[in-house]
Amino acid sequence: MNSFEPRDPDFESRVRASFARQDFMVTLGAEMVHLAPGEVDLAADFKESLRQQHGFFHAGVTSSIADSAAGYAALSLFPPGFGVLTSEFKINLLNPAMGPRLIAKGRVLKPGKLLCVCRSDVYGGAECATHVATGLFTMVAREGLDD
Amino acid sequence: MNSFEPRDPDFESRVRASFARQDFMVTLGAEMVHLAPGEVDLAADFKESLRQQHGFFHAGVTSSIADSAAGYAALSLFPPGFGVLTSEFKINLLNPAMGPRLIAKGRVLKPGKLLCVCRSDVYGGAECATHVATGLFTMVAREGLDD
Amino acid sequence: MNSFEPRDPDFESRVRASFARQDFMVTLGAEMVHLAPGEVDLAADFKESLRQQHGFFHAGVTSSIADSAAGYAALSLFPPGFGVLTSEFKINLLNPAMGPRLIAKGRVLKPGKLLCVCRSDVYGGAECATHVATGLFTMVAREGLDD
Amino acid sequence: MNSFEPRDPDFESRVRASFARQDFMVTLGAEMVHLAPGEVDLAADFKESLRQQHGFFHAGVTSSIADSAAGYAALSLFPPGFGVLTSEFKINLLNPAMGPRLIAKGRVLKPGKLLCVCRSDVYGGAECATHVATGLFTMVAREGLDD
Q1: Are B109 and C131 in contact (CB < 8 Å)?
Q2: Is residue A26 scored above 60 in pLDDT?
Q3: Hey, of D114, D123, D136, which one would you mutate to test binding to chain A, going by the most A CBs within 10 A of its CB?
Q4: In a domain, B3, yes or no
Q5: What is the pLDDT of residue B87?
Q6: How far apart are CA B106 and CA B135, in angstroms?
Q7: CB neighbours of D102 closer than 8 A, spacing ≥ 6?
Q8: CB contact, 8 Å: A64 with chain B?
């Protein structure tokens, strides 16, 4: 795996403060369970309000936590004064997203001044041993965006 | 645009019943505002619980309603006894997803016995005139899946 | 459809000169059959050297002309002194890519200073009436890149 | 990494015979340099006929060998009598695709009876140490398709 040098020594407090402002992550019950330069894991427990029609986590939940994990992995490497926006992503849903818990592991593949490409893998099922989804994300660093 | 012949004369009640079972769409406040063979529009009003860190709709909300709109557009063309699962999707976020309302327009591009390719476009901002996102979705028809 | 104002009055000669330097397009036998601000169509005739194992155009040919059509649609809107690079793309292959000819229609969906999102649709079969593929592309404007 | 059990004891000769029929891979000068169940590597040397306008490998070349590597990784796990078609793919171009050689490593992530999800990573530059591209591919198993 890659190892990255953060350009902001305060990256940790900045990432956590921004994540705390994502009301939608509160709605999903997501919490940040790992943070390192270029790496963020988010986890969410199963609840009825997140279900699709067959009783699994909705694909939108899976992709939402995958997206935020990737976005904060990217933000952890941005210099101070730059915020993060998702430009695009693609996700393959490999197995039904079953509880009791989903964990999304966002990792930076290619950091850049303007664009940052990340991968995010989501695991679920018993002991989070099932590979539920894998995705690729392009994140944009936007100067002056308050993150 | 394409015009499609549904293989299930009861497609409308089947699609609406399945949508009503997606608890996550209730969580998002999404409602089905258009349904025709191969076409579904979903709309969701802005609320604080759907925000990302800059105050816009979270990209996960945008992609979730885009995904469900595409999935139900596909399901409307499936024969009785087949359910729908998202296999994969890709979405480009074109403009910040601002309220007061998002509308996702799911359309079938290529129906098939096993796979159905759809496009979904999301609009927001004043009078829903801003093109917020565009995505491509592959939906799978699964026999015996209760939809 | 959108209509765009080019930022370079000489966009046409610049796009054609750059296309002429893409040796790989010569290898494919691709020619530019339409050029307007934000719009480029490329066409390629079937030949044995472009086949996959079942005798159709290889998916790589379909995606290559879709990519170049999208890239030159983007370049047509860039200011002088900026070159174009593909950042990422996604393509769905809707029908077998049969000859006698493929035509790829690249269109700008969202122009931007740094990023330009495009769609590209490829048609083939008799009278190019079959929708062979549809894709979404993110193009980057890079200053100082000689295009 | 995953390890897979092939369902066709003759998978190796079948994969190599199909690859030999892909005229487009001959056009690119691609050769198969690794084959194991669920794993195929393809390599192509730089030549002028594969260039884009700045002198690098064209993105279409990168994605073409990534696609064939993924497709043959999938085919290696199919039962006899099933051929392979690319349903869709997405690729992020991480660094300029420089020679002297590109190598694409296709790996099966999720095998299935009908769909097979693969990843393909492409490396180039000195000693193929630069990560040029990463992509996700959905391959379809089609019965009766002669591969």
Answers
A1: yes
A2: yes
A3: D136
A4: no
A5: 98
A6: 9
A7: D43, D44, D46, D57, D61, D62, D65, D122, D123, D124, D128, D132
A8: yes
Write the pLDDT tens digit of every residue in A69-89. Answer: 999 999 999 999 999 999 999
Strand partners, A117: A110, A138
Q: Which amino acid does the sequence have at A62?
A: T
ipTM: 0.96
Q: Do A18 and B61 touch (CB under 8 A)?
A: no
Tell whether D133 is covered by a domain.
yes
Residue B145's Cα: distance from chain center in Å? 19
Nearest to A136 among D90, D109, D131 (CB): D90
Distance of alpha carbon D121 from alpha carbon D127, whole angstroms: 15
The alpha-carbon gap from D142 to the nearest alpha carbon of chain C, in Å, equals: 12
Question: In whole angstroms, what is the distance from residue C138 CA to residue C95 CA?
Answer: 24
**What are the two backbone dihedrals, phi and then psi, of residue B5, each rounded to the nearest 5 degrees?**
-100, 120
Q: Is A134 on the interface with B (CB under 8 A)?
A: no
Tokens 């993150």 label which residue?
A147
How far is Cα A73 from Cα A9, in angstroms, rounded to an integer?
A: 15
Work out the minimum CA distance from B117 to partner chain D, whole angstroms.
10
Residue D90 with chain B: CB contacts under 8 Å? 90
Give the number of other CB atoms < 10 A from CB of residue C106: 29
Q: How far apart are CA A63 and CA D91, in angstroms?
A: 18
Q: How far is D121 from chain A (nearest CA, A)?
A: 12
Task: Count Cβ–Cβ pairs < 8 Å, chain C vs chain D.
Answer: 123
Number of A to C CB contacts under 8 A, please give it: 17
Minimum Cα–Cα distance from A108: chain D residue: D94
Percentage of chain B beyond pLDDT 70 is 99
- Could you list the residue range(s) of the whole structural domain that residue A68 is in? 11-143
The 10 Å Cβ neighbour count of residue D143 is: 10
Beta-carbon contacts of A125 under 8 Å, excluding residues fewer than 6 positions away, are: A95, A98, A99, A132
Distance CA C118, CA C135 (A): 8
Q: Spell out the long-range contacts of C24-29 with Cβ–Cβ below 8 A and sequence spacing 24 or more.
A: C24/C64, C24/D49, C24/D50, C24/D51, C24/D52, C24/D58, C24/D60, C24/D61, C25/C65, C25/C68, C25/D58, C26/D49, C27/D27, C27/D49, C27/D50, C28/C61, C28/C64, C28/C65, C28/D60
Any domain includes D6: no
Interface membership of B90 toward D (CB under 8 Å): yes
What's the 3-state SS for A33-95? EEEECCEEEEEEECCHHHECCCCCECHHHHHHHHHHHHHHHHHCCCCCCEEEEEEEEEEEECC
> Do the domain assignments include residue C112?
yes
pLDDT band at B146 (very low <50, low <70, confident <90, very high): confident
How many structural domains compose chain A? 1
- If you measure CA to CA, which chain D residue comes closest to C139? D93
Give the tens place of pLDDT for each residue, B44-76. Answer: 999 999 999 999 999 999 999 999 999 999 999
Q: Do B109 and C134 touch (CB under 8 A)?
A: yes
Instruction: Check pLDDT > 80 for residue D124.
Output: yes
- Assign residue B18 the CATH number of its domain: 3.10.129.10
